[in-house]
Automatic annotation (TrEMBL):
<dbReference type="InterPro" id="IPR036515">
    <property type="entry name" value="Transposase_17_sf"/>
</dbReference>
<dbReference type="GO" id="GO:0006313">
    <property type="term" value="P:DNA transposition"/>
</dbReference>
<protein>
    <submittedName>
        <fullName>REP element-mobilizing transposase RayT</fullName>
    </submittedName>
</protein>
<dbReference type="GO" id="GO:0004803">
    <property type="term" value="F:transposase activity"/>
</dbReference>
<dbReference type="InterPro" id="IPR002686">
    <property type="entry name" value="Transposase_17"/>
</dbReference>
<dbReference type="InterPro" id="IPR052715">
    <property type="entry name" value="RAYT_transposase"/>
</dbReference>
<dbReference type="Pfam" id="PF01797">
    <property type="entry name" value="Y1_Tnp"/>
</dbReference>
<feature type="domain" description="Transposase IS200-like">
    <location>
        <begin position="15"/>
        <end position="146"/>
    </location>
</feature>
<dbReference type="GO" id="GO:0043565">
    <property type="term" value="F:sequence-specific DNA binding"/>
</dbReference>
Length: 305
């Protein structure tokens, strides 16, 4: 089955123009054909198979076939591949043609070695357009960190497994992370108005972090800037946090950035009350009210022994 998020394209974007793209392709059925993870948590690395070496070589040959294109970062993982492409000069064909040629070439070589009409890649590919300051550095770091993230997931699989039927405050949520945080006897909601003055925000942050230091679990949908600031501070201070998200979790979802490490440490629970969607949406007032209502109800649930 084709994952919709692997085929999603930005409809109003000209993929022939000069830009930097992060691309991802996955092995058919996520089979670990490209290598194996070695070194454990101490020194994780991907030891490439013959197929993985061939895939890396095909990728590195792209600039020789496509003038005006350079490769900034890439990483072969056991069952998928990440690569950052810099389209330095406008192209006659879009990005999809470059990725498609790479997939076709590597598939042809794979079939020649396997001596059968075997599939190497899943249909489609995923791309992220890197337009904003800091995105390239963040994506480089993400790609370089992939082996460690895989090692962490394998060491703590229960914390990264999507559970679709967690019950809380009379509602069913999809969840990733430490669901035992729901059982904490003391939970504090983080709800900060967008119009709160700086001194009041600082006081609220100090109060909530102090409560978390003494065992409370913070609960928030992280909608307003103040709520996001306090959530970031809690994560940086290694304090427990329950986050309620508007969007659900697609298959093979991985928590982003600081959420990942907090999840691995058992300090984070991500809850999603509604199904996953692939389109960009702005939160409606009704959704904001609902998310805050969930946070209120979860914080008020009594789990005192």
């Amino acid at each position: 089955m084709i994952n919709n998020h692997m085929l999603k394209r930005k409809l109003d974007w000209d993929y022939r123009q000069r830009c930097i793209y992060m691309t991802t392709v996955t092995v058919e059925k996520r089979r670990p054909l490209l290598g194996q993870l070695t070194g454990g948590l101490g020194n994780p690395t991907v030891e490439l198979s013959d197929v993985g070496i061939m895939v890396a070589q095909c990728w590195q040959e792209i600039p020789t076939h496509v003038p005006g294109v350079s490769l900034l970062e890439w990483q072969v993982m056991p069952d998928h591949f990440h690569g950052i492409i810099f389209v330095q000069a406008p192209q006659e064909k879009p990005l999809g043609a470059i990725v498609g040629a790479f997939k076709a070439h590597s598939t042809s070589l794979y079939r020649a070695g396997a001596r059968q009409e075997a599939h190497l890649w899943s249909p489609g590919y995923q791309d992220t357009i890197l337009l904003h300051r800091g995105q390239l550095a963040n994506m480089r770091a993400y790609i370089q960190d992939n082996p460690r993230r895989l090692a962490v997931k394998r060491a703590h699989p229960e914390l990264f497994r999507i559970i679709r039927n967690i019950s809380a405050c009379g509602h069913i949520f999809a969840a990733i992370g430490n669901h035992f945080l729901l059982d904490a006897p003391v939970k504090r909601q983080v709800q900060i108005s967008r119009s709160v003055p700086p001194d009041a925000l600082a006081a609220a942050e100090a109060d909530l972090l102090a409560a978390a230091l003494h065992g409370a679990v913070l609960v928030s949908p992280c909608i307003s800037p103040g709520e996001k600031q306090i959530a970031r501070a809690a994560l940086q201070a290694a304090l427990p946090l329950i986050v309620i998200l508007e969007n659900g979790f697609p298959p093979l979802y991985k928590p982003p950035k600081s959420y990942f490490d907090a999840c691995a440490a058992g300090r984070l629970l991500m809850l999603a009350p509604w199904p996953h969607h692939t389109d960009r949406r702005s939160l409606t007032r009704e959704q904001c009210l609902a998310l805050n209502r969930f946070a209120t109800q979860i914080a008020q649930e009594d789990h005192t022994p």
